[in-house]
Protein 1
Amino acid sequence: MTRACYLALRRVKALQVAADGVIIVDEPGRALDAKDVSGVLDLPVVGVVEADPQVSRAVDSGTLLRRIPSSLARGLRHAG
């Protein structure tokens, strides 16, 4: 999972992780889109998860795995 952000994509490329696809965190105002991410990483985009402050709060509080926020669950469900 990565953000559609130049710095995030540079980091993913540097890690050289073997993957079959990528899930994008969709944030308002980003210049890059799924096609850009797919082209840079040479991977298909298999899902898009909307950025949601509720997810950030769940991560910060350590409750993400116990109660997945609906926006995250919805995005992951479409990823297969």
Note: The beta strands are 2-3, 22-26, 45-50.
Protein 2
Amino acid sequence: MEVERNLLSIGSRVRLRRADLPEAGTYSTRVEDIDETRIVVQPPFVQGMPVSLPPGTRVELEVDRRQLPGQGLYRAVTVVLGKDPGELGFVYLQKPESWQRVQAREFFRVPAMLAVQIRAAGEENAPWMIGQTRDISGGGCLLMAGQRFAVGQAVELILSLPDRRIAAKGMVKRVNKPEEGPDSLWALAIAFTEIAERDRDAIIRYAMKRQIELRKKGLA
């Protein structure tokens, strides 16, 4: 569904991904200026190095406005116009003609077994439960835990990626009893509601890398 064209303003946070290198993951950046024809963003960096964005490169932009009533997650495809020759190296993007509203489930989801801790949110002394993910994406995860939570319940999570630990808040969307495994385990589908953009980007990069590994093994 096509939506309003003017979703961005100066200071907006956006995620950017090269359309020709989707396996490289997404990069978080900030809008520095915007006019009728172009968007100026900070150059994205990975491990201290600027991401290569030559003129003519097609990129996907994503902006998350789900924190606003009636808003959602939006995506557009555009092209790199060039780079500011100055010290800051701002990147010029062609202003998209339109944006598409997408569903959070469209985040790239992959099978993954990662250690996770979960507890009820808003309860200072709530105990942490140890669990393990079954799949993960930038929008949430499916995990196994030894405690049943109610659908709609707010939870806190600590996810252990191979190279970092990520704290996030989420909401329980679905609760099932797994067909296999101990009777004490519950399968919980969690949607992230509060997560730092740098942490979401780290999850998306991990998911991309994981998908490539599974394809090489013939498992995806």
Note: The chain has two domains: 2-102, 110-216.
Protein 3
Amino acid sequence: MKIVFDFAGVLFRWQPVAMLQRELPHLATDEASARHWATQIFQGYSGDWADFDRGTLAVPALVQRIARRTGLAAADVQRAVDAVPGELQPVPETVALLRRLHEAGRELYFISNMPAPYADHLEATHGFLRCFRDGVFSARVHLNKPEPAIFELAAARFGSAPGRLIFLDDHGPNVQAARALGWNALQFSHAAQAEAVMTERGWWSRPDVTPG
């Protein structure tokens, strides 16, 4: 079985509400206002942000579109966009799981909705990404999760039938889309939960046990 990781919310921290409270305290004055602006800026990863994820919209145009749509100052939008790489910090427990799996010889891959500048930043910054044999960044293939096409492309690229792929993602619609295509998909909450569920379902052996 090949294990496929999502990035934001699984391998990397992604807490946009807290990020906006740090970066735009004059707007995100409390959790409710921060949630409002997170919804307005990121649009549930649809609309403008989905085009950014897809690689069809560059940062300057993204900032202007969000500013026009929301009424926010362009400088505030730019600050939020620029803050995302700093928010994407490794989750230590998931990185530890990734490393153990790599050391045990498991085949590791990823699928991430990730705009091109953020993907470039992560690759240049985090050596543990070399644990992956391959992966799909949305901006580089111009497809986004949960579109079926990105899962079909990934399965072909990873050289595996869907039933031999284990997919870990924190976002329910992505998990449902993968399952509909025959993947073994698990909605991720934290590394210990993912390891326990995969073991319980017989999807893998623990990294310190020889696979059967």
Note: Residues 54 and 212 are 39 Å apart (CA to CA).
